[in-house]
Design goal:
It contains seven helices and no strands. The protein is mainly alpha-helical. Helix 3 runs antiparallel to helix 6, helix 4 packs antiparallel against helix 5 and helix 5 (about 300-405) runs antiparallel to helix 6. The chain starts with 14 loop residues before the first helix and ends with a helix.
Length: about 500
């Protein structure tokens, strides 16, 4: 109310101050009696003079009724020149004398002066009341404006805190969304080591005969598959928790944004109210503006509601931070365990390959020995067969000699020493031939066993080479596609 003068309350002013603020009253017109001096100013001629005598009014005056009935007086200034005129009093048409006229004028001036003085007093009182009322209104308006400013500051403070909370929730939602995509990429990447392990187990199932064993490599591969399955289950549960936490963060953010939007609207209204003045062009009569809606909140409930919104948002944010920290711990431990298990598989595979290679080398050496011995046995068999042929000729010679000597005649057919020597020779050659045949049979049996051993060795060498092909050529190459720590981490 800039156009309202600043004055104090009318009820609290000092009467002396009020009298000082009143304008100086005009002096009333009075008769001067007993002045006695030449310097005394005489009153105007239209006012009572000192020499005027005031005769007493006659006891009986003419009126409309009475002994001198004048009739009804209808002649007046308003009625015009027509009508019944009053009768003459005391043989004249005049009613008053000059002194009475001057006295009447004095009475008129006095009455007018009294009315003017009363009007001036009333005007001064009215001005003081208006000034004091405007001052009180200005004071109340200033206090109300200060209250509005204070309230606007309170709303702005809460609005700023809600803005910070919304920004923090948005940032946390973004970070959690990054971790959510990270977990989904990790779950997708974890299918690679699981496929590698399963395919490697399927390849190792193609090993032949004696190499189809449940060795350390297979044990480690089974552990790796089980570990991958556990990690995938853990990440799947964590992904569900992240989805739930995302919903909670979005709900808290929406609730905070709704409250922030209300604070923005309220702050704009409070700013408009603070900036309004008595000269504003938007001022209108608002009937019923002083009503108090039943659903209005109190300052306590207002503070409690906003603080509850901020607390709920902060709690959701802290749970999200804790979940992300848990996720980092899960990644740290899971990736370490998975890499350690992959290392164990690679070590076991390397050891198994080295062991198979050593076995293959020994089998190849043994095959060379077997082949060498087989060659020697075949050579021995040839020699034994040649030896048998030589003894056969000697046996033929001895038998031919004996048969020729059986053709001696008469007394010449004698059992002499040559006869017994030839018989002993035949007997000895027969025993020697039998011994050589036994050795030949044994050599041939040994040759057959060596051939079997050669076949077994060749088969085992083929088995070991296939196992080496599966473990080294296929398995180690397959293990090179095992995802790195960065890929498993979802980056």
């Amino acid at each position: 109310m800039s156009d309202i003068p600043n004055e104090h309350d009318c009820c609290g002013d000092n009467p002396q101050q009020v009298s000082q603020q009143q304008p100086e009253e005009q002096p009333c017109f009075t008769m001067e009696h007993g002045g006695g001096g030449d310097n005394v100013e005489k009153p105007p001629l239209y006012l009572p003079q000192p020499e005027d005598e005031y005769p007493s009014k006659p006891e009986h005056t003419m009126g409309p009724l009475g002994p001198w009935a004048t009739g009804k007086v209808t002649c007046s200034r308003e009625g015009g020149i027509t009508g019944v005129k009053p009768v003459a009093d005391r043989y004249s048409v005049t009613l008053y004398g000059p002194s009475e006229w001057r006295a009447h004028n004095l009475n008129v001036f006095r009455q007018s002066n009294e009315r003017i003085c009363d009007a001036q007093v009333t005007a001064n009182g009215a001005k003081q009341c208006v000034d004091q009322t405007y001052a009180a209104a200005n004071k109340v308006q200033s206090e109300t404006t200060e209250h509005l400013k204070t309230r606007a500051n309170v709303v702005y403070r809460w609005k700023a805190e809600l803005e910070h909370a919304i920004a923090a929730l948005a940032e946390e939602t973004g970070l959690l969304e990054i971790d959510r995509r990270r977990v989904k990429r990790s779950l997708s990447v974890l299918t690679i080591p699981a496929s590698i392990a399963n395919e490697f187990l399927q390849l190792r199932s193609c090993r032949m005969d004696s190499d189809l064993v449940r060795d350390n490599v297979e044990e480690q591969l089974m552990k790796e598959i089980s570990l991958i399955s556990e990690i995938r289950d853990l990440l799947s549960r964590t992904l569900e928790q992240i989805d739930t936490q995302m919903v909670e963060l979005r709900s808290a953010k929406v609730r905070t944004e709704n409250d922030w939007s209300d604070k923005i609207h309220t702050y704009n209204l409070e700013s408009v109210c603070v900036n309004l003045s008595n000269d504003s062009p938007l001022l209108l009569w608002k009937a019923g503006a002083t009503r108090v809606p039943a659903d209005q909140s109190t300052p306590t409930s207002y503070e409690h509601f906003t603080q509850e919104v901020l607390t709920a948002g902060e709690a959701a944010k802290q749970r999200s931070i804790k979940l992300r920290s848990t996720l980092n711990d899960i990644y740290t431990n899971s990736i370490k365990d998975l890499r350690d298990q992959a290392t164990c598989v690679d070590i076991a595979l390397s050891e198994n390959i080295k062991l198979t290679q050593d076995c293959l080398q020994q089998l190849e050496k043994e095959l060379l020995r077997c082949l060498q011995e087989l060659a020697n046995t075949e050579k021995l068999i040839e020699e034994l067969r040649d030896s048998t042929k030589g003894l056969n000729n000697a046996m033929k010679l001895a038998q031919t000699r004996l048969d020729n000597r059986l053709n001696r005649r008469n007394i010449e057919s004698c059992r002499d020493t040559p006869q017994y020597a030839l018989i002993e020779e035949v007997k000895s050659l027969s025993e020697q031939t039998s011994a050589i045949l036994v050795e030949l049979k044994r050599a041939e049996d040994s040759q057959a066993e060596l051939v079997k051993a050669r076949g077994i060795l060749e088969h085992e060498i083929m088995v070991k080479r296939k196992s080496l092909y599966i473990d080294k050529e296929r398995g180690q190459l397959l293990r090179t596609f095992f995802p790195s720590t960065t890929d498993i981490s979802g980056f």
